[in-house]
């Protein structure tokens, strides 16, 4: 005889009554005020709105209202809007679900809002005389005539008032407002060409006028962040990404949309953005980015998450590769020298040079046996000689790796491997052999090292073979780069090894690098200070207090007087 736990009252299966099922199903789409705001904003964008106003009272439990100037709902259809699965965005054919081109499509948002609260819709197409008004609560729907401007206003009041159990589990009003504000910020970032406004308890919290991605970043994160982003434009990828000096320990400012829908970025896409930075980004930090990814409608499925925050991509590796290439191209097209620390309180960081090429630098001297002081393009440059030499060595090894036949070891060397390293050896063996590293499983936790890349064999690096194998079988995504970065660091010039001849040689080598702005581990190689900043720091007000170097600007009108903006 089958025995059941005490909490099982009966093994019998039964079908829930319709009125109970409706209460459960409503929570699939609307489980909190944030869901109402998201669904209504999606509808506004699908309606082609250029202005979207969102209003929230009492954390959204008392009121959520979204007003738009979109196409509106015709009088003949407005009474159907609150019905479940009533939608204008998909055709009745099943195959239409496989090619969704809108943000909303299920036809459940207004129905779920009416089940969970009191729904009020006022809508008028621009060509229609007079508006229509819909009041819906539960299954009760009433339609009447009204007067309103073109567009649609949807209001949801007293959310979960008839569902006390769900009401008691809602987050505090302040927490929900924070989430709604963050949500609207994401819509602003991904749809910067629209008017946006968020009002909370009668107070305007967020406004945005139509602009580009940079303007959207300014509206959401402030002008300082906006001044440090670069435009990204690639195959199916558009947006902005921050310069390497603007990073965070968390990935909370990495924003991705797919076909206009803000989504939780798959880890593969976040990793692709970071890999696009390469060695410009230190380990453990993340940039700010706003990236709009476009794929064919049939190549993504937004129907895999109740809130549509997750989408499935048919070719995720291909999309990641396009994102990685677009970010790398954006960074390579801009100069990435960082400004020196400010010399006086309140001084604003100066802009970057006007072109991406690394300038020819003239050595002025050596400071503390490690830093090079140089001048170029009218500015003072401070160069970390170790980081600069490391960058030059890394690029030299990268160019020469694989240029010659692998170097055979006089006697194969046996190395101990961990089980994890051994698994990676089986996975990466052909790749490693492709660039000259022949490492064979010898059994019993051992591997036999037979050849080394010819460019690496003569390096005077302690424990050379162990370091190569350790990096080649490490957990990094690019073992080749990890090996070369490790081996470029050891022989690079260190404190006490510098003189003027070596210093100038380092500057010349750095100028010949493809990516001179950072060492392979992400530390900056150079810092830059304009003469104008120096003049202002010393309080100079003379003929030399004019834009020079990276401060150079178009010539001012003759009657505009001297530039004393930094006073």
Automatic annotation (TrEMBL):
Listed CDD domains? HATPase_MutL-MLH-PMS-like, MutL_Trans
- Keywords (A to Z) from UniProt: DNA damage, DNA repair
Q: Which stretches make up the MutL C-terminal dimerisation domain? A: 363-499
Q: Where is the composition biased (Basic and acidic residues)?
A: 542-553
Q: Which SUPFAM superfamilies match?
A: ATPase domain of HSP90 chaperone/DNA topoisomerase II/histidine kinase, DNA mismatch repair protein MutL, Ribosomal protein S5 domain 2-like
Q: Which residues form the DNA mismatch repair protein S5 domain?
A: 217-332
Q: Name one Pfam family in it.
A: HATPase_c
Q: Where is this region: Disordered?
A: 540-567
Q: Which residues form the signal peptide?
A: none
Q: Supply the InterPro entries for this chain.
A: DNA_mismatch_repair_CS, DNA_mismatch_repair_MutL, DNA_mismatch_S5_2-like, HATPase_C_sf, HATPase_dom, MutL/Mlh/PMS, MutL/Mlh/Pms-like, MutL_C
UniProt lists the family membership as follows: Belongs to the DNA mismatch repair MutL/HexB family.
Identify the NCBIfam families for this entry.
mutl
Q: What does this protein do?
A: This protein is involved in the repair of mismatches in DNA. It is required for dam-dependent methyl-directed DNA mismatch repair. May act as a 'molecular matchmaker', a protein that promotes the formation of a stable complex between two or more DNA-binding proteins in an ATP-dependent manner without itself being part of a final effector complex.
Q: Which HAMAP family match?
A: DNA_mis_repair (MF_00149)
Record protein name field: DNA mismatch repair protein MutL
Organism annotation: Deinococcus radiotolerans
Ranked from the top, the taxonomy reads: Bacteria, Thermotogati, Deinococcota, Deinococci, Deinococcales
């Amino acid at each position: 005889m089958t025995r059941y736990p005490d909490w099982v009252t009966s093994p019998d299966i039964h079908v829930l009554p319709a009125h109970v099922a409706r209460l459960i199903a409503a929570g699939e789409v609307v489980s909190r005020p944030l869901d109402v705001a998201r669904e209504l904003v999606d509808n506004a964008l699908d309606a082609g709105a250029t202005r979207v106003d969102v209003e929230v009272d009492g954390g959204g439990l008392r009121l959520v209202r979204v007003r738009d100037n979109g196409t509106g709902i015709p009088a003949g259809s407005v009474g159907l809007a609150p019905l479940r699965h009533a939608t204008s965005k998909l055709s009745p054919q099943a195959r239409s679900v496989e090619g969704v081109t809108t943000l909303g499509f299920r036809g459940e948002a207004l129905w779920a809002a009416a089940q969970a609260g009191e729904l009020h819709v006022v809508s008028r197409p621009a060509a229609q005389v007079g508006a229509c008004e819909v009041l819906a609560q539960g299954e009760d729907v009433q339609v009447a005539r009204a007067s309103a401007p073109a567009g649609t206003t949807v209001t949801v009041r007293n959310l979960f008032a008839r569902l006390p159990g769900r009401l008691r589990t809602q987050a505090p009003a302040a927490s929900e407002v924070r989430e709604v504000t963050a949500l609207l910020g994401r819509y602003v970032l991904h749809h910067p060409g629209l008017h946006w406004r968020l009002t909370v308890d009668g107070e305007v919290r967020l406004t945005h006028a139509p602009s580009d991605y940079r303007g959207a970043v300014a509206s959401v994160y402030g002008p300082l962040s906006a001044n440090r982003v670069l435009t990204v434009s690639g195959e199916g990828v558009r947006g902005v990404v921050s310069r390497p000096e603007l990073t965070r320990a968390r990935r909370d400012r990495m924003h991705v949309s797919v076909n206009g829908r803000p989504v939780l970025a798959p880890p593969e896409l976040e990793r692709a953005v970071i890999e696009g930075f390469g060695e410009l980004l230190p380990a453990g930090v993340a940039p700010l980015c706003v990236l709009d990814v476009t794929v064919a409608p049939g190549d993504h499925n937004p129907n895999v998450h109740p809130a549509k925050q997750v989408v499935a991509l048919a070719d995720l590796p291909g999309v990641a590769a396009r994102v990685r290439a677009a970010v790398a191209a954006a960074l390579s097209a801009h100069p990435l020298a960082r400004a020196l620390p400010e010399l006086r309180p309140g001084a604003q960081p100066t802009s970057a040079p006007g072109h991406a090429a690394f300038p020819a630098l003239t050595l002025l001297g050596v400071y503390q046996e490690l830093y090079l002081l140089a001048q170029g393009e009218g500015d003072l440059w401070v160069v970390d000689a170790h980081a600069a030499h490391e960058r030059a060595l890394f690029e030299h090894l990268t160019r020469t790796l694989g240029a010659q036949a692998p170097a055979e070891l006089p006697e194969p060397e046996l190395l101990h491997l961990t089980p994890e390293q051994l698994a990676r050896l089986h996975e990466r063996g052909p790749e490693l052999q492709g660039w000259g590293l022949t490492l064979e499983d010898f059994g019993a936790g051992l591997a036999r090292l037979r050849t080394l890349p010819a460019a690496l064999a003569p390096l005077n690096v302690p424990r050379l073979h162990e370091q190569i194998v350790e990096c080649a079988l490490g957990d990094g995504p690019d073992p080749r780069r990890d090996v070369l970065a490790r081996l470029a660091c050891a022989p690079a010039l260190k404190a006490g090894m510098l003189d003027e001849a070596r210093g100038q040689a380092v500057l010349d080598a750095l100028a010949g690098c493809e990516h001179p702005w950072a060492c392979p581990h992400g530390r900056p190689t150079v810092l830059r200070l304009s003469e104008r900043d120096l003049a202002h720091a010393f309080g100079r007000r003379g003929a030399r207090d004019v834009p020079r170097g990276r401060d150079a600007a178009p010539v001012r009108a003759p009657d505009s007087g001297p530039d004393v903006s930094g006073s």
